[in-house]
Amino acid sequence: MKKSLLFGVALVSLLPAFAMAQNAFDGTWKINLNKVQMSAKPDVLVLQNGVYQCKTCTPPITVKADGDDHSVTGHPYYDSVAIKVVDDHTIQETDKKNGKVVATSTIAVSADGKTAAVDFTDSSDTNTAPVSGKATLSLVAPGPAGSHAVSGSWRNTKMQSMSDNGLIMTFKVDGDHLNMTTQTGQSYSAKMDGTEAPYKGDPGISSVTVMKTGTSSFTETDKRNGKPVAIAEVKIAPDGKTMSVVFHDKLRGTTTTFVADKQ
User: Fold this and answer.
1) Which of 9, 135, 155, 171 sits at 20 to 30 Å (Cα–Cα) from 256?
2) pTM of the model
3) Residue 36, Ramachandran bin (φ over 0: left; ψ between -120 and 50: alpha; else beta)
4) For 195-234, what is each residue's pLDDT tens digit?
5) CA within 13 Å, CB half, 224
6) Degrees to nearest 5, angle at CA 260 with 189 and 32
7) Contact 216, 236 (CB under 8 A)
């Protein structure tokens, strides 16, 4: 759930080999939360008869909602999930990896059941302080009759806030390579011709390619064990002050768009 909220907005930039373009794109960029358009595809959750299901997680998750840690497989960012039912409108989730807490979230559904507030922290792919934030969900379709209020199809309609370490990244061109670093510890140095390069600091991404697609547009493909998991299409504004990104989550089949401002 958290990864789909946040998530996953790994920004990419690719610079031409010309000095003026290099100077224009070098620097620090910050995602503007007022210019984020989340995917219209909803997350599907069901909590009924003491069992919690995240049907759109990749792979799907089914665990007892008893507050205890339960092992899950196939998720590079965590290996256990605990779901605590706080009341008939609120649940808390705690994800761990190797026994260490890597993410927490609270989902509180409104009295009318039409919206939900999410409060999260996530250190599953950070080597420093956790990324924290708040989001608002809107109900697209209700869950099964008699199920907990959190059950249903939910669309993330607004990211209310996110800590700066989840929004800021730095780019530097060195010869024919693009170097990328983030405040959460991810980095790569990739040749700008589509050659595959290591992606460091993220348990869900093992390699990356960056490819120029036009005079001011670029594409990054993130891979896990050779398989594409995300594609970012990037276009730099003529004034060099903003970066528009279309981010495709290949695992979930979702598309998110956003703008980053040069700092």
Assistant:
1) 171
2) 0.88
3) beta
4) 999 999 999 999 999 997 877 777 999 999 999 999 999 8
5) 13
6) 140
7) yes
